Amino acid sequence: MKYFTGIGILFLVLLWSCSTSNKVIIDDISEEEKLAFNSKEGDTVRIANDSIEYEIIIIDPGFNIWLNRVARQRGYYTQGFLETRNNLLVTNYNIRVRNPFRYDPELYPLEIDYQPGIDYGYEVNYLLYNYFIFFQRRNNQQLTGFVPRA
Questions:
Q1: What is the pLDDT of residue 32?
Q2: Predicted structure pTM score
Q3: Which residue in 1, 41, 109, 146 has the fewest CB atoms around it within 10 Å?
Q4: Where are the domains of the chain?
Q5: Phi, psi dihedrals of residue 48, rounded to the nearest 5°
Q6: What backbone torsions phi and psi does residue 24 show, to the nearest 5 degrees?
Q7: Rounded to 5 degrees, what are φ and ψ at 54?
Q8: Residue spans of alpha helices (H) in 20-78
Q9: β-pair type (44-49, 54-59)
Q10: Whole-angstrom Cα distance, residue 97 to residue 125?
Q11: Which residue(s) pair with 141 in the sheet?
């Protein structure tokens, strides 16, 4: 009987440990972030590099406040770092867009066309990266193995 009880408990522990979650519990949310996340102001941020005719328009309340008050300043990251992270983030984001039965289609509505061979410039990469950090922290998601930090 002890043998079966031990196996049952082991099975339950294994079953519990195998369940995965795409959510990250972020305990270190500052007052500035809470303000940005709860903002109802309509933000529209245009991310563009006119020389290569590339544009992203973000309409997400609170992003502008978060970008100006919480995000690391321009120049903190190198363009190479931003491009590497954006490639990972966009790839994982697009995987979730393509799986609407597994991931919330309200969170992942449209694919992002980000191609690693194109030089989008520092500003586009900076804003896209920071939007992903904002998105992950506000929605308690984790797109990569890196915990999103402000």
A1: 56
A2: 0.69
A3: 1
A4: 25-139
A5: -150, 150
A6: -120, 135
A7: -120, 135
A8: 31-37, 63-69
A9: antiparallel
A10: 20
A11: 23
Range 89-96 average pLDDT: 96
Nearest to 40 by CA among 56, 55, 61: 61
Q: Summarize pLDDT for 50-74 with one digit per residue, the tens.
A: 665 677 777 778 888 888 888 899 9
Strand positions, DSSP E, 7-127? 44-49, 54-59
- C-alpha to C-alpha distances, 13 to 1, 20, 30, 72, 134, nearest whole angstrom: 18, 13, 35, 40, 34
Residue 96: what residue type? R
Instruction: Read off the pLDDT band of 116 (50, 70, 90).
Output: confident
Find out whether 78 and 150 touch, Cβ atoms under 8 Å. Answer: no
Distance, in Å, from the CA atom of 122 to the CA atom of 128, rounded to the nearest integer, reads 10
pLDDT of 18 higher than 60: no
Q: Under a CB-based contact definition with an 8 Å cutoff, are residues 68 and 127 in contact?
A: no
Q: Which tokens belong to 24? A: 């990250």
Distance of alpha carbon 53 from its chain centroid, rounded? 24
The residues, any chain, with a CB within 8 Å of residue 70's CB and separated by 6 or more, are 30, 32, 33, 36, 150
